[in-house]
Amino acid sequence: MTALAIALFLFVAALVVFAIDLMIPTGGVLIAVTAILGFGAVVFAFRHSPVSGLWMLVATLGLIPIMLFTLLVIWPRTPFGKRMITVPERAGDFNWSDAATADLKQVIGATGIADTEFLPHGTVRIGDRLFEAVSESGPIDPGQSVRVTRLDVGRLVVVPLRSRPGDAATMSEGSGLDRPISELDLDSLE
After folding, report:
1. Among candidates 190, 171, 172, which has minimal Cα distance to 180?
2. Helix (H/G/I), strand (E/B), else coil: 7
């Protein structure tokens, strides 16, 4: 087999591998194989003669835009491409939270009770109405008192309330982290 025959075989193999890649998505693996086969075709064509090498180089480089056009424009319109590339559905009408319909002067600064757990979203009961809300200061447990600080993109923003400043328990209460070091019976690090 001559170098020119090998070059032509590699060139045709590159086209076949590219066509297979259009039908079996491999995440770019077959595109890389196509590039290697095309490079091999050019190398073997130059081994045959400089003129055939130049023609193979022109043919290979000329096919790159055609392959890109096929991959980016034509393939997504094929039945297989349509199954692989999903078109996102248009969002329906945007629904504001019902907080946007409430009287803001009465809602902002108001206190309520967390109806659900906030991680950071949840619902809060203010008076006899439920509102979607987001916590500004981390998780809030159901039943905890909250205060509305502002309205942000149609949702109330709330912070937890403490009944009295002295009642605020430390986060480490009951975990042993608030015990004196002498009670922990630790060895010296020296």
Report:
1. 172
2. helix
In sequence order, what are the beta bridge partners of 159? 147
Give me the tens of pLDDT residue by residue for the chain, a chain 190 residues long. 788 899 999 999 998 998 888 777 777 788 889 999 999 999 999 999 999 999 999 999 998 888 888 878 887 887 777 777 766 666 555 445 566 566 667 788 889 999 988 888 888 898 888 888 889 888 888 999 999 998 877 778 899 987 444 445 555 565 666 666 666 677 766 6
Distance CA 142, CA 140 (A): 7
**To which H or E segment does residue 56 belong?**
helix 50-69
For 99-167, give the DSSP string. Answer: GGGS-HHHHTT-EEEESS-BSSEEEEEETTEEEEEEESSS-B-TT-EEEEEEEETTEEEEEE--S-GGG
Report the alpha-carbon distance of residue 10 to residue 39 in Å, rounded: 9
Alpha-helical (H) ranges within 24-49 are 29-48
